[in-house]
Specification:
Elements: E1 19-23, H1 27-39, E2 43-47, H2 50-59, E3 64-68, H3 76-86, E4 92-96, H4 101-109, E5 114-117, H5 122-137, E6 145-147, E7 152-155, E8 160-163, E9 166-169, H6 172-183, H7 191-197, H8 211-223, E10 233-236, E11 240-243
Parallel strand pairs: 1-2, 1-3, 3-4, 4-5
Antiparallel strand pairs: 6-7, 7-8, 8-9, 10-11
Helix pairs in contact: 2-3, 4-8
Bound molecules: calcium ion.
Calcium ion is lined by residues 25-26, 68, 70-71.
Length: 250
Amino acid sequence: MLDSISHCFNETVMPKDTHILIVEDEPAIRMGLIDVFVYHGYQVDFADNGEEGLEKALTGQFDLILLDVMLPGINGFDICNRIREQSRDQAIIMLTAKGGDEDIIKGLSLGADDYVSKPFSVAQLVLRVQAVLRRSQSESEQNTTIILDDDYTIDCLNLSGKAGAETLSFTRREIDLLQYLHAHSERPVSREELLHKVWGYANDVDLETRTVDIHVAKLRRKIEKDSSAPAFLVTVRGAGYRLHSQADNE
Ligand code: CA
């Protein structure tokens, strides 16, 4: 597992003060992950069961949590859900089983930032971790309020919004996605660009991931009157996604 990892960390990322929590019950995978991140100077903590993982996640200060789904005790979905009740900023990457499409959708719907499917290559996982961290630590786009129409508004600073009388809440990643689309609302934005700009993926990273589409679907359920016929967050066939807001019409 440790082969070829030495050069897959980007030298510009300073891991020294970066704390990662690894929640994984399979000893070989857990030890491999710990070795990789410790080797490169990250501060690593770990848990091998759900209860301990949840406790550490809720009480510790971590820049990123790597969260397995199937765990003894409390499963990764429940842990993710509990973390999100407490923090919508916490960066979370789920480790999902191969072919586990439902797990991927569920994990992202519960607010994970991204996922990696098992079996994963260490290099691939490291790139995802770096990407999520880079984005988590960078500053958000500048718009603080997005007015979709008179009834639908999004407060980017507070990760909240209004849909008529209903109050919405968003994760940091959802707000980042909305802000990026809003800042470039004059054109459709491709999945690749969103992965690059909102998730921090390097341009040459394997882009076979459903992260963007699942986040868009989740956002539509929040901000659209009818998520099957979106009026704000629209798909531009063959080009990507575009956000229509009130400012476009003024
Ligand atoms: Ca497991």
